[in-house]
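Tip: read the tokens left to right.
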């Protein structure tokens, strides 16, 4: 399945070039129980991911590589419920994702796609360490 994550340009390029290490703790834009857990928030909906960064990456994952985000887990939600929530469907990637499974699908900052291996392309976007938030 494909999921999406909204982020800044620097992180988008890093994820496409080096993959995603979901074992790392990330700075989150929205604080809560997730602050103490590693992983990368994703959503099955592109429109939701757009709300969390100027760049949207698409990630190919197996269902077994996703888990229920901490706040929803505390509320007793299943992974299916988390992924189909009407307002903000979400999950947490909990494993290593190889770069070949990650692609940039939108840049709101520059309005174009780019080759992540071309250093001549300027990267712009929000400059937090990583929103890491849900998408």
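Filled-in amino acids:
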């Amino acid at each position: 399945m494909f999921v999406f994550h909204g982020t800044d340009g620097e992180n988008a390029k890093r994820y496409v070039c080096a993959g995603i290490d979901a074992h790392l703790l990330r700075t989150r834009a929205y604080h809560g129980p997730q602050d103490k857990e590693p992983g990368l928030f994703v959503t099955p909906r592109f429109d939701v991911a757009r709300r969390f960064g100027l760049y949207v990456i698409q990630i190919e994952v197996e269902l077994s590589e996703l888990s229920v985000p901490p706040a929803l887990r505390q509320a007793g939600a299943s992974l299916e419920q988390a992924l189909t929530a009407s307002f903000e469907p979400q999950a947490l990637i909990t494993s290593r994702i190889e770069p070949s499974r990650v692609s940039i699908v939108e840049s709101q900052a520059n309005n174009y796609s780019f080759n992540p291996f071309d250093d001549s392309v300027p990267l712009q976007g929000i400059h937090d360490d990583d929103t890491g938030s849900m998408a």
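The first strand starts at residue 2 and ends at 7. The CA atoms of residues 71 and 100 lie 30 Å apart.
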